[in-house]
Amino acid sequence: MIRISTIFIAICMVLVAASLGLILYSVAGISGMESAIVALTALTFLILYNAVSMRLRDRTDVGGQIADLSRGTADLARQVAEFGRRLAAVEGKVVSANSAGADRIQAVVGEIGELGVLVKQLAVSVASHDEMLASNVPTAAPARKPDNEQQNATPLSAEDTGVPTASAAPVALAEQTAPSRSLAQILTAVKNAVEENRIDIFLQPMVTLPQRKVRFYEAVTRLRDDKDQMLAADDFISVAEAAGLIGRIDHMVMLKCVQVLRRLMVRNKDVGVFCNVAAATLGNAATFAQCLDFLEANRALASSFVLEFKQATFRNLSPAESENLAALAQRGYRFSIDHVTDLRIEPRELADRGVRFIKVPAALLLDQRQTSASDIHPSDLSDLLGRFGIDLIAERIEGERAVVDLLDYDVRFGQGFLFAPPRPLRPEGASATGGTSPSKAQESNGSGKTASIDSPAIDPPRATGNAALARRAAGPD
């Protein structure tokens, strides 16, 4: 459609040419034919001028449009290049994810292979027991004595453990079960044991699952009377707390545990020791001050020295006990909770207080009634605690079936008589090779005796599948 401006310009050119011819006719006296020719010629020139000027203007506009198109093409090329880069990055992430998935699959395949080996070992052990029963060979029954915390442990014989006799025989003389006593006799025995430093440390390993490699040791406290008879934990803890002696016992146990840890770390830097601390020690200002000074002097071991408290202690902390706990956490020490009676656990609150381990009995984890009694299914407890940096340890494991069930719960650590019972430290002169080394790694215990803590009488646990053998040697967990 012709634009209005073009029509207006054409009218104006006609008027200009007509005006020119009229002027020539009327003023210059030129004839009408000549005036018309001149007017027509002027109109032709005007038309040519207009056409040329419009062509030049259109060329300029086309040049600008071409420049704009070039810029748009360049922008489009840059966007395509950016999309290509992003696509390459996405492809790289997909490839890395696939490789990571392949690595995880390989790890799972390796664990399944290890589990298969353990199952084969279990099958061989069961077959050997069946052969023994078929041939009417008597087996020793486990001698058990109820003890919720700790029990006197007799070292295993050389035939049971595969360790030379010299590593276990020297400590067998003092491992006798104490007879029943009255409270007065127990109190006297505890006082004498504390005064004469007759406090022994037994070590029980905590192993990784399913590899069963020793990762930590728990220090179990034993007291000896003047006849070298052991006092069970249930016999002396309540009496020591009532008499105000539990703080001194904990302080002496901490000293021995640090000595043991230093010796163990000479051979393995990744090992750790769990040391039990009573609530009375945490709440007593004078006793706790001594323990804090000692732990402050050994802050270099804080990452490997774990202080263990009961679940009831954490649930009933007083303001003073909370401040003391925070003081320990500020010095880098980590905490563990044991004697767990239910799974109503607040992992965020525990993590804020410095708890990094929770020990739950295997029977409690595998109890189906806990599904309705707790806020979370037991099979999800390990993942929940792991999100807050807390490791779950299943304790009191006595059977291979429990290990298999716990692997479905993603439990990383285990402890119990299935792996190894609590065993005492070797006395002076005992070594893994049966020789003597009186000048190596001896620590005085204050009663004229020395104990070598360079090589504790605990060997790496082996999955024998025979929990009754361990219980026969050391009693219940």
Architecture overview:
The strands form two sheets. An eight-stranded mixed beta barrel has the order 1-2-4-5-6-7-8-9. The protein has 477 residues and is an alpha/beta fold. It has 16 helices and 13 strands. It has two domains: 4-80; 140-474, TIM Barrel. It has helices spanning 4-26, 32-134, 158-161, 183-195, 233-243, 246-267, 279-283, 285-297, 311-315, 319-330, 347-352, 362-365, 370-373, 378-386, 400-408, 467-474, and strands at residues 199-208, 214-224, 230-231, 272-276, 305-310, 334-338, 355-361, 391-395, 413-414, 423-424, 426-427, 442-444, 450-452.
Provide a brief overview of the structure:
The chain is 53% helix and 13% strand. By secondary structure, it is α/β, with parallel strands linked by helices. The protein has 2 domains: 4-80; 140-474, EAL domain (TIM Barrel, Alpha-Beta Barrel).
